[in-house]
């Protein structure tokens, strides 16, 4: 950036020269490894310089071996099957969810790349196509993320920090062309991957179709594909709700939420949660093997660039044998304990706000009763409860933003080695806080409200104000109202934000970058009029990751399982929200976001552990909720609790996490990799072909 424009902001007046020298040094290092192309565009008073990066073959080979890129040994010819597709086919029922998506990415047996064994890998003859586009992106980002530009002790490493400090404004891989379909009919096989994803996945008309997960993985990487696979499984399993629970909307509210069907439905949802997680674990193991990520966390994942720069010492990795940076566990433990104190402080703040809202409801009811207005007096409790729920939702959303910011600072300070461990620590911090933040008010209404009222002549008080009591219809109805306001309100606000805000941000970003009447393009004398691909991509929004998407869905999972006895309609709203969420997220990634750098992942991380915790908590909560809040059944109903937990454990024990077919494929792939990387191999190709033919005959 030019100093005159004011876009380069330095912490000290005399540091401009130092920063420039650092950038020149970092640029010189990159120039030795890559081919650089510079394109300068003048837009009004702003000059934007685009540097296009590509890596030559020798750099690709070196870093592919360094970061353990997996390359193909042999094509897998066994077709991919979907269980629902098999069932419908056996029943001779047309499958309305199926669709023929062109250019299906092939599946391969793979192993880690080795330069000295290049001739043994499939497709090694063509250097232009041997590495996939996403693998090239990974290699380029690996170089950029680990190149120091200043002091290593201060962690001045990597392009991510340069972007965060506004030395650079962006760093991103390019999309593969436009997402709009051609105006004239064309062969579907000739469409680029972005057009395929938009036409067969991101459009609203695709709401009932299977997601093209292999195409998503091919274009966006394993981490994003696993998110959509998980989201799609929740969507499909929620469809069971329509077949299990049919509610007459015209019944009285008390009969709607407090009846025998509610008890049955609570048991069903508790078992559904356990079964869903078992089903997802099997699906996740199948996908992680098919996408070559089953050993990513244990063997292939590298230390974070920030950790590498700031770690005070190095030790030998017991798995890989390589010398790696190390941060003492005792220091990390002390920092973690400090972070836990911050969590406790924030939880205390949440409870203070909860008490404030309780007092607000009570005081508002008193004020309305003293108003001597017959209409308001009749609805005083309902008005106080509803406005309190809305106020509680506002407080929840504000505190969520504050704590998420604090959790990011604390997690960086704790110095976690890998990106997976960093994300797991960050997610756990935020979830603990959000769990209390979102569920404290429903828990209070379910188990505490109306329990400590006292009796005439000796009412219990809080800060001099009489304790709250449940209304004439009972606490269960008020709990259902609270859940609907918080859950549905958050869903509506989140979907509006996801639909409206990206469009407003994109419009404002394009407005700032609107070309001047005479746009100057340097180093491109033969360029055609209009935006170049890098300019068009720069006008898109930055992908901010999947954390908010996962958190929204996990909190929703908690609402529909922990409190389903109070609000049987919650799964219906969750189903509708998931239908909308899949399409909104797909449109954002395909149409509105810059293409994110591919990230590999073995599974959905600590989110699965959190979901297990919620599913077991749901069994206990629903049993006590029915026993102590419902007027329909006696308190002896708590023995549901033990039966459902026992059935859940039996399901967990009977259903293996990894299907037998996947275990055999893993062993087969390990054997093939050993043969491929062996020093003395006479008939390598014949061995692989014979083994694959034998495998296909058996299965």
TrEMBL record:
The lineage of its organism: Eukaryota, Metazoa, Chordata, Craniata, Vertebrata. Residues 216-669 form the Anoctamin transmembrane domain. Pfam families: Anoct_dimer, Anoctamin. The chain crosses the membrane at residues 261-280, 342-363, 383-406, 426-447, 554-576, 604-626. It is found in: Cell membrane; Membrane. It is a multi-pass membrane protein. GO terms for molecular function: chloride channel activity; protein dimerization activity. InterPro entries: Anoct_dimer, Anoctamin, Anoctamin_TM. Its main location: membrane. This is Anoctamin. The keyword Membrane applies. Residues 43-213 form the Anoctamin dimerisation domain.
């Amino acid at each position: 950036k030019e100093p005159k424009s004011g876009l380069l902001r330095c912490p000290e007046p005399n540091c401009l020269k130092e920063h420039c020298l650092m950038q020149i040094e970092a640029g010189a290092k990159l120039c030795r490894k890559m081919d650089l192309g510079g394109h300068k565009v003048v837009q009004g008073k702003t000059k934007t310089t685009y540097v296009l990066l590509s890596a030559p073959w020798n750099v690709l080979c070196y870093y592919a071996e360094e970061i353990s890129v997996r390359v193909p040994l042999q094509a897998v010819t066994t077709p991919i099957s979907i269980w629902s597709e098999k069932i419908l086919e056996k029943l001779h029922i047309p499958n309305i969810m199926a669709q023929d998506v062109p250019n299906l990415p092939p599946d391969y047996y793979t192993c880690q790349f080795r330069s000295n064994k290049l001739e043994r890998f499939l497709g090694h003859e063509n250097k232009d196509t041997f590495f996939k586009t996403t693998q090239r992106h990974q290699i380029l980002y690996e170089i950029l993320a680990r190149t120091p530009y200043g002091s290593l002790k201060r962690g001045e490493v990597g392009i991510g920090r340069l972007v965060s400090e506004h030395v650079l404004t962006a760093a991103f891989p390019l999309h593969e062309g436009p997402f709009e379909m051609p105006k004239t009919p064309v062969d579907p096989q000739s469409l680029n991957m972005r057009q395929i994803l938009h036409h067969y996945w991101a459009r609203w008309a695709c709401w009932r179709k299977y997601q093209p997960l292999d195409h998503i993985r091919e274009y966006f990487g394993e981490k994003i594909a696993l998110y959509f696979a998980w989201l799609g499984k929740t969507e499909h399993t929620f469809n069971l709700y329509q077949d299990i629970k049919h509610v007459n909307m015209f019944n009285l509210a008390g009969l709607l939420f407090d009846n025998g069907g509610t008890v049955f439905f609570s048991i069903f949802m508790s078992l559904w949660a356990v079964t869903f997680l078992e089903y997802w674990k099997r699906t996740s193991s199948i996908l992680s093997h098919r996408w070559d990520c089953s050993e990513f966390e244990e063997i292939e994942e590298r230390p974070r660039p920030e950790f590498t720069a700031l770690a005070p010492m190095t030790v030998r990795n017991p798995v890989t044998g390589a010398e790696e940076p190390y941060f003492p566990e005792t220091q990390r433990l002390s920092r973690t304990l400090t972070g836990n104190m911050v969590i406790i402080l924030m939880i205390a703040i949440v409870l203070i706000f909860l008490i404030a809202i309780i007092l607000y409801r009570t005081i508002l009811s008193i004020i309305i009763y003293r108003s001597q207005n017959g209409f308001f007096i009749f609805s005083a409790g309902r008005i106080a409860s509803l406005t309190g729920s809305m106020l509680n939702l506002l407080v929840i959303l504000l505190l969520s933003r504050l704590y998420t910011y604090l959790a990011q600072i604390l997690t960086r300070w704790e110095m976690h080695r890998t990106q997976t461990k960093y994300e797991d620590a960050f997610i756990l911090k935020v979830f603990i806080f959000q769990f209390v933040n979102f569920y404290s008010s429903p828990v209070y209404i379910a188990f505490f409200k109306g329990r400590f009222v006292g009796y005439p002549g000796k009412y219990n008080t809080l800060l001099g104000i009489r304790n709250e009591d449940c209304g004439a219809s009972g606490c269960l109805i008020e709990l259902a109202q609270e859940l609907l306001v918080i859950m549905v309100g958050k869903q509506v606000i989140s979907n509006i934000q996801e639909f409206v805000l990206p469009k407003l941000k994109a419009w404002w970003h394009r407005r700032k970058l609107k070309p001047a009447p005479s746009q100057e393009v340097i180093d491109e004398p033969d360029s055609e009029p209009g935006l170049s691909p890098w300019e068009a991509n720069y006008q898109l929004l930055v992908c901010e990751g999947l954390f908010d998407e996962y958190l929204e869905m996990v909190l929703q999972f908690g609402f529909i399982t922990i409190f389903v006895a109070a609000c049987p309609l919650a799964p219906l709203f969750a189903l509708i929200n998931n239908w909308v969420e899949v399409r909104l997220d797909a449109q954002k990634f395909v149409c509105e976001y810059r293409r994110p750098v591919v990230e590999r992942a073995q599974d959905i991380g600590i989110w699965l552990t959190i979901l297990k915790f919620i599913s077991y908590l749901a069994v206990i909560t629903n049993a006590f909720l029915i026993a102590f809040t419902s007027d329909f059944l006696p308190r002896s109903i708590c023995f549901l609790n033990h039966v459902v937990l026992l059935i859940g454990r039996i399901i967990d024990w009977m259903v293996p996490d990894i299907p037998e077919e996947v275990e055999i494929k893993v062993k087969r792939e390990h054997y093939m990799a050993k043969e491929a990387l062996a020093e003395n191999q006479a008939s390598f190709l014949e061995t692989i072909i014979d083994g694959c033919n034998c495998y296909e005959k058996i299965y």
